[in-house]
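ARCHIVE CARD
Drawer: 12
Card no.: 0347
Subject: one protein chain, sequence and derived structure
Cross-reference: see card 0346
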Amino acid sequence: MNWFLLNSGKCDAASNMALDEALLEAMTRLQKPVLRFYGWTEPAATFGYFQKFSDVEQATPLRPLIRRPTGGGIVPHDADWTYSFAQGGGKLPAHP
């Protein structure tokens, strides 16, 4: 099986999550898994797709707060190097 490998470098938090979401939405057209590596240009916190913003806002002092297109809890970011993996197709679930 062939994969796409993407090293997108360092971006701000909103751009990083927007690119992850775009890759998820493109899976049916790409027809190949994508492994992406990236970094952060600013401290930030990302939080899971189904978490409530008001709960996250109270749980961490980190800003900006950016919702991930995937599930899970609060993840602090700063000088970390991150990866995402997208495979398969389908639509993202509607936000509650």
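Annotation on reverse: The beta strands are 4-11, 34-40, 44-47, 65-67, 75-77, 82-86. Residues 13-25 form the longest helix (13 residues).
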